[in-house]
């Protein structure tokens, strides 16, 4: 059992409650489940590595781009990630430090994988937003921030690469305030930049992190301490003190309540590659990031202090271990105290599911876990039983909500190079569709597969994975359709009649839901005006409702 849970349980006996009940109610308070978001190349994966290093989860950080296989980035485990130096799938990493259990979710930065990122953000309670000191707020950063804002996820801002030449720190702070409509509270300030970089100064704790020296010095006198002036030299000290005082006085003080409500972002300047201020970032998450929060469901919010176990599947990953053709469902627990071997109700199927081999991760590496609390993320190996959006409970019937599927923006017909590999291709498409990498559609007439993606890079990943994991080579051809919408109606007869009249344009997704395909937005508006009784949806809620009627 969790060490903190044991302590709480022993202290609670005097209050009349059983130790197990009190432990389950309080152990979740030691959980910090957070994601890292950024525009590509801002340093997100490097920061992930250094947080793992700081937390003791790994002994040596890899590089996003390095020679050979010895020091690859830990969170980028797919071949295409290693070869291209990008993250194309979310990774989950669990580690413990100083009594706090961290669940870190590394998300893809590329906009083509925004749907995977969105679903991952449904499973976290806070996020770190990484900004390149030379580029500031970039397009994908802003999009991901808006997703966090929709879900009221508190944001910590890490301004990365301050050891290189970059923009003025005040300019970056003002841009964050203006572009994201957030108050900013500088916490760690750079001392010089680029060639004049000397380290980072903690404005709250009055600690100086020296560049080039693996040491941190505390100054009781703060910015006025003569020892600090002596350490920096008169010229560097004068410039630093002026800017640090302005940063401290000219922007908001850190307010924990405003941060947790999403109105204020603490800002830490540092360098992930050189390991500057990463420990301070970790300390901040432990001290101020929210513990597990209530999760939305169709019966109302589910509080983490509830006794009964509940959780939802936010991601499915196929073939993490190619030798075993395995499928792992990532489950975020929302309440209760889960123990290995428990039988949980699989709400979608109505059947009991024995969880005998729950695992936790450091990227691709895995270990068995004996228990989990609200806020924890574990993997459940299965053979297709669990899908994204599924709810697991301890004897209750409800569904967690808030996991959407988005209408694809790019549609392509799949062509198989070797027709003898049809079975392998079909399995690969179905597996990767369940994983959420792509959406797969089957026409009402004909046997061609049509895939839908957010961006073209997903097609490269799809072809690479089908070739590597299923030994089938595929190519993609354009189709006459560019727009896809799920269709529904309050009248079952009206929906059947519409599908009959538009047989060539209606396909079925992997769950059997009807999807209308058309050439462009003009065609969509035309058909919508003609059929007022049909709803054309750009998103669909994934709540594990089962397969639609054919």
From TrEMBL:
<dbReference type="GO" id="GO:0003924">
    <property type="term" value="F:GTPase activity"/>
</dbReference>
<feature type="region of interest" description="Disordered">
    <location>
        <begin position="1"/>
        <end position="25"/>
    </location>
</feature>
<keyword id="KW-0648">Protein biosynthesis</keyword>
<dbReference type="GO" id="GO:0016150">
    <property type="term" value="F:translation release factor activity, codon nonspecific"/>
</dbReference>
<dbReference type="GO" id="GO:0097216">
    <property type="term" value="F:guanosine tetraphosphate binding"/>
</dbReference>
<dbReference type="InterPro" id="IPR005225">
    <property type="entry name" value="Small_GTP-bd"/>
</dbReference>
<dbReference type="InterPro" id="IPR041732">
    <property type="entry name" value="RF3_GTP-bd"/>
</dbReference>
<dbReference type="Pfam" id="PF22042">
    <property type="entry name" value="EF-G_D2"/>
</dbReference>
<dbReference type="InterPro" id="IPR000795">
    <property type="entry name" value="T_Tr_GTP-bd_dom"/>
</dbReference>
<protein>
    <recommendedName>
        <fullName>Peptide chain release factor 3</fullName>
    </recommendedName>
</protein>
<comment type="similarity">
    <text>Belongs to the TRAFAC class translation factor GTPase superfamily. Classic translation factor GTPase family. PrfC subfamily.</text>
</comment>
<dbReference type="Pfam" id="PF00009">
    <property type="entry name" value="GTP_EFTU"/>
</dbReference>
<dbReference type="InterPro" id="IPR027417">
    <property type="entry name" value="P-loop_NTPase"/>
</dbReference>
<dbReference type="GO" id="GO:0006449">
    <property type="term" value="P:regulation of translational termination"/>
</dbReference>
<dbReference type="InterPro" id="IPR038467">
    <property type="entry name" value="RF3_dom_3_sf"/>
</dbReference>
<feature type="binding site">
    <location>
        <begin position="38"/>
        <end position="45"/>
    </location>
    <ligand>
        <name>GTP</name>
    </ligand>
</feature>
<dbReference type="GO" id="GO:0016149">
    <property type="term" value="F:translation release factor activity, codon specific"/>
</dbReference>
<feature type="binding site">
    <location>
        <begin position="160"/>
        <end position="163"/>
    </location>
    <ligand>
        <name>GTP</name>
    </ligand>
</feature>
<feature type="domain" description="Tr-type G">
    <location>
        <begin position="29"/>
        <end position="293"/>
    </location>
</feature>
<dbReference type="Pfam" id="PF16658">
    <property type="entry name" value="RF3_C"/>
</dbReference>
<keyword id="KW-0342">GTP-binding</keyword>
<keyword id="KW-0963">Cytoplasm</keyword>
<dbReference type="InterPro" id="IPR032090">
    <property type="entry name" value="RF3_C"/>
</dbReference>
<dbReference type="GO" id="GO:0005525">
    <property type="term" value="F:GTP binding"/>
</dbReference>
<feature type="binding site">
    <location>
        <begin position="106"/>
        <end position="110"/>
    </location>
    <ligand>
        <name>GTP</name>
    </ligand>
</feature>
<dbReference type="InterPro" id="IPR009000">
    <property type="entry name" value="Transl_B-barrel_sf"/>
</dbReference>
<dbReference type="InterPro" id="IPR035647">
    <property type="entry name" value="EFG_III/V"/>
</dbReference>
<dbReference type="InterPro" id="IPR053905">
    <property type="entry name" value="EF-G-like_DII"/>
</dbReference>
<dbReference type="GO" id="GO:0005829">
    <property type="term" value="C:cytosol"/>
</dbReference>
<keyword id="KW-0547">Nucleotide-binding</keyword>
<comment type="function">
    <text>Increases the formation of ribosomal termination complexes and stimulates activities of RF-1 and RF-2. It binds guanine nucleotides and has strong preference for UGA stop codons. It may interact directly with the ribosome. The stimulation of RF-1 and RF-2 is significantly reduced by GTP and GDP, but not by GMP.</text>
</comment>
<dbReference type="InterPro" id="IPR004548">
    <property type="entry name" value="PrfC"/>
</dbReference>
<dbReference type="InterPro" id="IPR031157">
    <property type="entry name" value="G_TR_CS"/>
</dbReference>
């Amino acid at each position: 059992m969790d060490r903190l849970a044991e302590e709480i349980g022993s202290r609670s006996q005097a209050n009349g409650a059983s130790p197990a009940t009190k432990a389950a109610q309080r152990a979740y308070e030691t959980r910090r489940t957070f994601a890292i978001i950024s525009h590509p190349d801002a340093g997100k994966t490097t920061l992930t590595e250094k947080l793992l290093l700081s937390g003791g989860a790994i002994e040596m950080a890899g590089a996003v781009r390095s020679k050979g296989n010895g020091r690859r980035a830990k969170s980028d485990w797919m071949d295409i990630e290693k070869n291209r130096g990008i993250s194309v799938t979310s990774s989950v990493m669990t580690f413990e430090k100083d009594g706090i259990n961290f669940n870190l979710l590394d998300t893809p930065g590329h906009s083509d994988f925004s749907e995977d990122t969105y679903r991952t953000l449904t499973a976290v309670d806070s996020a770190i937003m990484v900004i390149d000191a030379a580029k500031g707020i970039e397009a994908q950063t802003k999009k991901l921030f808006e997703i966090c804002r929709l879900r009221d996820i508190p944001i910590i801002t890490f301004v990365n690469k301050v050891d290189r030449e970059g923009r003025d720190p005040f300019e970056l702070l003002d841009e964050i305030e203006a572009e994201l409509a957030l108050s900013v509270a500088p916490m760690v300030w750079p001392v010089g930049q680029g060639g004049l970089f000397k380290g980072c100064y903690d404005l709250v704790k009055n600690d100086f992190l020296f560049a080039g020296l693996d040491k941190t010095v505390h100054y009781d006198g703060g910015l006025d301490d003569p020892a600090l002036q002596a350490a920096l030299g008169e010229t560097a000290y004068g410039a630093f003190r002026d800017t640090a005082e302005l940063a401290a006085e000219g922007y908001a003080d850190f307010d924990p309540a405003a941060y947790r409500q999403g109105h204020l972002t603490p800002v830490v300047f540092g360098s992930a590659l050189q390991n500057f201020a990463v420990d301070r970032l970790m300390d901040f998450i432990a001290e101020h990031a929210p513990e597990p929060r209530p999760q939305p469901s169709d019966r109302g919010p589910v509080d983490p202090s509830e006794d009964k176990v509940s959780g939802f599947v936010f991601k499915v990953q196929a073939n993490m271990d190619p030798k075993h053709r395995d499928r792992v469902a990532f489950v975020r627990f929302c309440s209760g105290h889960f123990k290995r071997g428990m039988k949980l109700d699989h709400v979608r199927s109505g059947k009991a599911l024995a969880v005998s081999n729950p695992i936790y991760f450091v990227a691709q590496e895995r270990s068995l876990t004996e228990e989990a609390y609200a806020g924890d993320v574990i993997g459940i190996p299965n053979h297709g039983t669990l899908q994204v959006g599924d709810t697991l409970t301890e004897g209750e019937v409800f569904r967690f909500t808030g996991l959407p599927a988005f209408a694809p923006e790019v549609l392509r017909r799949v062509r198989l190079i070797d027709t003898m590999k049809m079975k392998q291709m079909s399995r690969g498409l179905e597996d990767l569709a369940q994983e959420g990498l792509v959406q797969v559609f089957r026409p009402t007439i004909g046997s061609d597969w049509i895939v839908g993606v957010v961006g073209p890079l997903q097609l490269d990943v799809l072809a690479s994975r089908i070739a590597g994991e299923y030994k089938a080579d595929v190519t993609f051809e354009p189709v006459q359709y560019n727009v896809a919408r799920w269709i529904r109606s309050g009248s079952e007869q009206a929906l059947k009649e519409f599908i009959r009249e538009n047989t060539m344009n209606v396909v079925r997704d992997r769950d059997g839901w009807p999807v209308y395909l058309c050439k462009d937005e003009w065609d969509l508006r035309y058909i919508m005006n003609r059929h007022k009784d049909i709803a054309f949806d750009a998103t669909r809620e994934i709540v594990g409702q089962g397969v639609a009627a054919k």
